[in-house]
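Page 47, continued from p. 46.
Same chain as before, 785 aa.
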Amino acid sequence: MGGSVTKRLRLAVATSLMALVLSSCSVFSSMATPDPRDDVPTLEVAWRVEGEVPIIPFDGAGTPESTSATSGDRYFATYHGDGMTSGVQAVDLTSGETLWKTGTNLLCGLSEPSASGILVAWQSSQREGSDCDAVTALSADTGETLWTQQVEDPVHRGGLGPKSVAATDRTVTVPTACGILRLDAATGEELGRLPDSPCGDELASGTGAITTGELIIVPGAEALTAFDAASGEEVWRTPGTALEIDEVRSHDPLVLDMTVDGVPGIREVDVSTGEIGPLIGRPLPRIHSGDFPIAQPGGDEIVGSYENLIGGIDGTYGSSLRAWDRASGEETFVWHTAGDELIGVDETGAYLGRTIDTDSRGGYAYWVMHRPPGGEVESVGWIDDQVLEFMKVDDLLLVHGWADPGDDSGLQGAITTAYRLPEQGTEVEPPAPKSAAAPIAWADDDVRTDPTVDLCAQVAPETLRELGIGDAADRPAPLGCAWEGGGVYLSAGATAFAPGTTDPVTGEEGERRSGAERARTAFEGLRSDGAYSEVAGLGDEAIVVTSETVGAPAHDELRTPPVSSAAVELVVREGNLVVAISVGSGETPSMFTSPPESLLPVSGARLEQIAIRAADDVLVAAGAGPLDAPAVEGPTGVPDVCGTITVEGLDAAPDALASGTDPRVSACLWQGDDEVARSGFVYAAAYEAGPGPLSGMTAADRAAAVYGTSRGEPLQIDGADEAHLELSPRSWQGSARVVARSGDVVVIAQVRTEEDEDTPDAEDRALEHSRAEATRIAEELLAAR
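Result:
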């Protein structure tokens, strides 16, 4: 297997409220041991060579910059030369000697050697090409080119999706934009492609299929399917929905960044049976960069981290190394020290590194620690030199550096040193990390959250269930703190501001200010955009923006079923802590987009209550709050529309039943077998407005606002305070929409009728039928309440 790799990143603290990243800091004191260096040996040097043995920055994914493999005492890795050139370099791990080196075009991937010694380089056929359109088989012993094959429908080097490549004694398998290409290992002759289906523009970004060498595994809408790479025959099939594979984190065992039943995350797949293991840790955002999560198997655990949001351990979330049980997916260990780095993971456990003072006078040294599966972190040794760029390969730690001019080794310029990594450590506590950062002068009343706890994830499951979020409420909090399900979404963010000199809005340096003052400045930056309204009596200060439509015409026309949308964005500051909650209908909107539309109405009054509860959950978890929220009178409720209204000749669409868990709203859609825009349909909705504890709207104000979102000719409706009718003739079709209000209740009925034949009076008959049906339905809904 290729070694895991780490490269130091600069410390970056995100202060943007819209990014809603929890930033926190740690202060370290001197350890009890006067000088731990006296009790722990320096690491043994296995070898030192002139020049640089390739060290690949570990981004946790099979990208062109992360291609390496080992076989016995040989290490194979890509190197990058001048300009756009790169190649494969083979190194003897016992001595550091370069065995051979090829010069090729840019590489997209490198396989592990097969049992017969075939190593596959997947690359671009052009010196500066951007497509992975060539496969070259190399001799693992000599580097000699055995054969080269062009690839049709190649994937782009910078494209998304897994890029696994493999070689066995029988086959070579590489990705294309249309599936995995199978080649004869001896000759390079094409054997076919899996999945064996037409390739269209919709597959230009790839199919998500991967190869393990022996198997080709294809995700699909209804199953995860494995095929024998040599014969193409199906081996196993695991049922599931909305299956996708984003990255391969480990081949043995097979650990994938994959989506199952619409939930993205890290999972292990049993290659012999196809069984998909539990979600490891927390669900991942649907769109994320390739540098996280690191997830490597070590014994009975998956060890790794989440995205590096605030620095520290390379590639980690909150500077924390984490371990999860492979069988259950539950977190078993977390380690947090600012500046520590994950060196690598193997069957003996995880290795970590820390930059320290070389002695009491300063200078740079590097402390190495080891944690066995299920155990605690122990010190295993240290390096009396600065370590900036490194990589774990088997039991060696490869470090790039420069030869000491006074060294009698004869080495000059750039060098690579290999240190042996012991499995056994001692309980000696490591020295404090070397840091130029001054201790933070926190105020006594500042919120200082545990850096291993993601504060925005503290929204209570009960709050999510009250919203009707569905199964997501029972899973670990998504890494992005954005929940979806049941036609609604909720996202949360929290920022604990530390005292400092940086302006949180402009990023400019200035006078030192307290955490609360910096939080106030950031809050004022949001308030100044003009979209928010003030909320009195909530925290130290609070602002909100709300929007709501119920059964509004889609695209300002009546030919398609109406849509609804509702959203609340609440920001609360209490001391140095700022909490932001976004809740609404549909799926989580992206930045700068309007609230998503849905057939399912959601009560704006209820969303305001949920937003307050979610903000309170986060504040209380941080030791602040609780919020002093006003009491709101409960709803009377509206009738179940699907159960109240009968429509002849059409069936209720199951996915459009919208009574849900909110007693204030109910809707139903009836349509024919042909569920396209041209077919006839009947839509009906009932909505009870409620007071807004954040917006300050009364129930009457909210009902009037919803009623006023559409316009039409005044209409007399039994039981209505006001009503209007809108008609839309079109060829032999006719559409009608009736909106009526009675007190704080609004009902909407929209009907489109199609006549069978385009006769001269077809349009009039369709229009009259739609008008009569819409009027009847509106009256029946008002009477049912």
